[in-house]
């Protein structure tokens, strides 16, 4: 992961799970805990990449990871909704 997101693996799982849960509820697509963790962790990486393209850098810490995870998970869920129809 990017240096800005050095929160440790355990905290990445916990924060990622919470971010995935928030995004699932926000997008009205709730999932189980494992999918929430995956959405949050992968979502943080996706958000970091997307925001990096626009020159936006999110500084480190658990709050930045939570925000990036939420944004990225929402992006992923939006793509899933588009594919499913």
UniProtKB/TrEMBL annotation:
Listed transmembrane segments: 6-26, 33-56, 62-83
Membrane topology: Multi-pass membrane protein
Subcellular location: Cell membrane
Predominant subcellular localization, coarse grouping: membrane
Keywords annotated in UniProt: Cell membrane, Membrane, Transmembrane, Transmembrane helix
UniProt keyword annotation of Transmembrane present: yes
Family to which this protein belongs: Belongs to the UPF0410 family.
Protein name: Membrane protein YeaQ/YmgE (Transglycosylase-associated protein family)
Organism: Rhizobium aquaticum
Source taxonomy: Bacteria, Pseudomonadati, Pseudomonadota, Alphaproteobacteria, Hyphomicrobiales
